[in-house]
Design brief:
InterPro entries: PPIase_dom_sf (IPR046357), PPIase_PpiC (IPR000297), PrsA_foldase (IPR050245), Trigger_fact/SurA_dom_sf (IPR027304). Pfam families: Rotamase_2 (PF13145). Its EC number is 5.2.1.8. This is peptidylprolyl isomerase. It catalyses: [protein]-peptidylproline (omega=180) = [protein]-peptidylproline (omega=0). This protein has 11 helices and 8 strands. The N terminus is likely disordered. The protein folds into 2 domains: about 170 residues, no CATH class; about 100 residues, Chitinase A, domain 3 (Roll). The protein is an alpha+beta fold. Helix 1 packs across helix 2 and helix 6 packs across helix 10. It has a 4-stranded antiparallel sheet, with helices on both faces. Strand 4 and strand 5 form a beta hairpin.
């Protein structure tokens, strides 16, 4: 996955989470039952703390403030892309979908392990991920419609960037996060004195720092885009049985332990050529955000509620 593709995937995940958040809200609004607590203004109380309640109206307002504009834009984008793929006769095949999912799940022990990680980190299940991959493929096919990449261009790119397609390696990694460098140094010293890293993980079970959670990560790609780069950079320099730290991450520090390292299977040559064609075509195409906007304009997309309009124009 190239840097540009990683950025797109991160954006897709963020928007998917926001769509899921508001989608869940819409479903919940229709699930009130007789006996639910009702405020004087007929607005449901959805949560309470002490003597204070949070009304559904307050909840809706907060969700719309945080996610409303992005969610509406994404919903409009989906409809516009669907209409354009139908007009152009573009098909997203099972082969297309499987190839993208295989690329996204590289660095994980299996496709199932990838699905489980996405569920844990972002609350996205297999159906969500397949739908987003399908949307991404359709959008890219629209953006690259008519762009032809010759075999000589593919050969030249492969020759100039061999490191992108090397077999690479996977690292069986464990990580512990702490707030202070002194704590990390203490853990590092204990492991170097012979204490098992698993024992430290058990000792700190349930503790976390911000969005980082420690523990056994299992097999991860050496360039895993979902792990802090500082951690993966340190891990790439270690051998099995090595420990390293303190590593500065976000608002704290990490200690890492490399349990094992294995080489990945060499990529299929035709798969590499297809990946290069896709990347080169995307590099020549308009930015995908511009393609989305042009499609919204083409199909007359409008946001009718003033409070839900994004700061930038549609």
């Amino acid at each position: 996955m190239t840097t540009r593709e990683k950025g797109l995937w991160a954006a897709v995940i963020i928007l998917t989470v926001s769509v899921a958040a508001l989608g869940g809200l819409i479903m919940l609004r229709g699930l009130s039952k007789p006996g639910d607590i009702i405020k004087d203004d007929d607005d449901h109380t959805v949560a309470e703390i002490g003597q204070e309640g949070i009304s559904e109206e307050q909840w809706v307002a907060e969700l719309k403030k945080r996610y409303g504009a992005n969610t509406l834009l994404q919903m409009l984008n989906r409809k516009a892309v669907q209409a354009e793929t139908k007009r152009l006769g573009i098909q997203v095949t099972q082969g297309d979908l499987q190839q993208v999912l295989e690329q996204d799940s590289k660095g994980y022990a299996s496709e199932q392990a990838y699905f489980e990680e996405m569920q844990q980190q972002f609350g996205l299940g297999p159906v969500d991920l397949r739908n987003e991959a399908k949307y991404r493929i359709g959008l890219e096919k629209i953006a690259t419609q008519g762009i032809q990449i010759g075999e000589a261009e593919v050969d030249r790119y492969w020759k100039e960037h061999p490191e992108e397609f090397a077999a690479g390696k996977q690292i069986k990694l464990a990580v512990l996060y702490v707030a202070k460098a002194e704590e990390a140094e203490g853990m590092l010293a204990r492991v170097k004195q012979g204490e098992q890293f698993d024992a430290l993980i058990q000792e700190h079970s349930g503790q976390h720092l911000g969005n980082n959670t420690g523990g056994q990560l299992g097999w991860v790609d050496e360039y895993d885009p979902f792990q802090p780069e500082a951690i993966m950079k340190a891990a790439r320099e270690l051998t099995p049985g090595d420990v390293a730290g303190p590593i500065a991450v976000n608002d704290g520090y990490a200690v890492i332990f490399v349990d094992d390292i294995r080489l990945k299977a060499p990529p299929d040559k035709e798969e590499i050529r297809q990946q290069i064609r896709r990347s080169l075509a995307l590099a020549q195409a308009a930015p995908l955000e511009e393609v989305e906007k042009s499609l919204r304009d083409k199909y007359g997309a409008r946001i009718l509620s003033e409070q839900d309009k994004p700061s930038a124009s549609l």
